[in-house]
Design brief:
The chain is an all-alpha fold. It is built from 13 helices and 2 strands, in the order αααααααααααααββ. The chain folds into 2 domains: 26-116 and 159-190, no CATH class; 193-349. The protein has helices at 4-26, 30-42, 44-53, 58-102, 113-128, 130-190, 197-234, 239-250, 258-270, 274-304, 308-322, 326-347, 373-381, and strands at residues 384-386, 392-394. Strands 1-2 form a two-stranded antiparallel sheet.
Length: 396
């Protein structure tokens, strides 16, 4: 019969195997589950407040938070898409009306001066080669049709994957908001750590993720405000809209806010304002773009209890290794390390030396001072008085 120690080792191996299998099953949804855990920790206070106002209905409170997140994602995208479609439709209508009334040459009057020569030569070439242009387009489209179809298929697949991950994230977020407290209690009960250590680690993770989210939103606001100043100075049309688009793109780590400033600078260049375009491009790259690397670490460190340099490199390192999600994973990994070291030092660290141990310097006995008048008065106030010999007797 196997000994108890051997059976325990086998059971530990089974536990590790089960954990590995669970991780394999959950790996397709890693980003969705991770973001759900992050948002659940960030919105835990709001969940508690809504539950209290809704008389204990945690499911309804979690549903309202999920609906709010959906609206926060869809409203900016829908507004940006509607604006782009509207402007493109106006541009197509303007070009069509101008060509019908004044021909292709009529468009040259609306082209900026530095570009009129290039556009004029292109129109002349278009008119002279218009006979073979259609055949060229047909041949080119026939040869590149397969590649175009493959590209469109890839874009559709990527979009579908992103939508699926967002849906899984919202589902996981709902259940974490409803039953997150019970999950934490279960982890605390089954964890091999001492009582309270698992909760302390989870609390530290919640603090770090909340700090990163708040700092990201605040940094996006700062970048949008700085970009708005540049738009107003250089005369960008509809500056408030471009500032709102800048705020939205600032939340996307792979894109950044500077892209919107550069796009607006290209628009100024196309409308015949080269100096303003150069100023806006430099402003967007230097001020708007680099402010992310300065403002975000300064704001994030206030809730992480880390040095600003550690926060800075954890953000950049996480972004370089894990991609966009690394902005959360990087600080979490560093916070995990610091928290584990702090707990170990506190609970398992070297005990402080006691008097009399080898190598410990001898300590002098403390000298008791004579009681002062004020101390004697305090003793009397407490119900005792001193006699002439200094003995204390209770007052009758």
């Amino acid at each position: 019969m196997a000994s108890e120690q051997a059976a325990r080792r086998v059971f530990i191996g089974l536990i590790l195997l089960s954990i590995a299998l669970v991780l394999v099953v959950a790996s397709p949804f890693f980003e969705a589950f991770f973001l759900a855990a992050v948002l659940a920790g960030a919105f835990q206070g709001l969940q508690t407040g809504l539950t209290r106002h809704l008389h204990g209905r945690r499911g309804l409170a979690a549903g309202l938070i999920c609906v709010g997140i959906i609206l926060a994602l869809l409203v900016p995208i829908a507004a940006l898409t509607a604006f782009i479609i509207s402007e493109v439709a106006k541009g197509v209508e303007f070009i069509s009306t101008t060509v019908q009334q004044r021909g292709l040459e009529g468009l040259l009057a609306y082209v900026p001066g530095p570009m009129q020569g290039l556009v004029g030569r292109w129109l002349d070439r278009f008119q002279t080669e218009s006979v073979g242009l259609w055949q060229f387009l047909q041949q080119h489209l026939s040869t590149q049709g397969a590649a175009a179809a493959q590209t469109v298929t890839g874009v559709v697949a990527t979009t579908g994957t992103a939508v699926f991950q967002v849906a899984m994230m919202l589902i996981a977020l709902y259940f974490l908001l409803v039953d997150g407290g019970q999950l934490v209690m279960w982890l605390e009960s089954v964890s091999p750590l001492k009582r309270g250590q698992t909760t302390e680690l989870l609390t530290e993770f919640r603090t770090v993720t909340k700090s990163v989210l708040v700092s990201s939103i605040a940094t996006a606001g700062v970048q949008a405000l700085a970009a708005l100043v540049g738009y107003l100075i250089t005369g960008v049309p509809v500056p408030v809209f471009f500032a709102a688009v800048t705020f939205f793109f600032a939340l996307i780590p792979a894109v950044g806010a500077a892209v919107v400033c550069v796009a607006a600078a290209v628009l100024l260049l196309a409308t015949g304002h080269p100096v303003a375009a150069l100023v806006l491009a430099l402003w967007g790259i230097i001020v708007v773009g680099l402010s992310d690397n300065v403002v975000k670490p300064l704001l994030a460190r206030r809730g992480m209890h880390m040095h600003g340099a550690i926060v800075f490199f954890s953000l950049l390192g996480g972004l370089a290794v894990f991609g966009a999600i690394g902005l959360l994973l990087g600080p979490l990994i560093v916070a995990f390390f610091l928290t584990v070291v702090r707990i170990y030092e506190r609970d398992y660290g070297r005990p402080s030396p006691r008097p009399g141990d080898p190598g410990t310097p001898p300590q002098e006995k403390p000298v008791l001072a004579e009681p002062t008048v004020a101390e004697g008065e305090e003793w009397e106030d407490a119900g005792f008085h001193t006699n002439g010999g200094g003995a204390e007797k209770p007052r009758h």
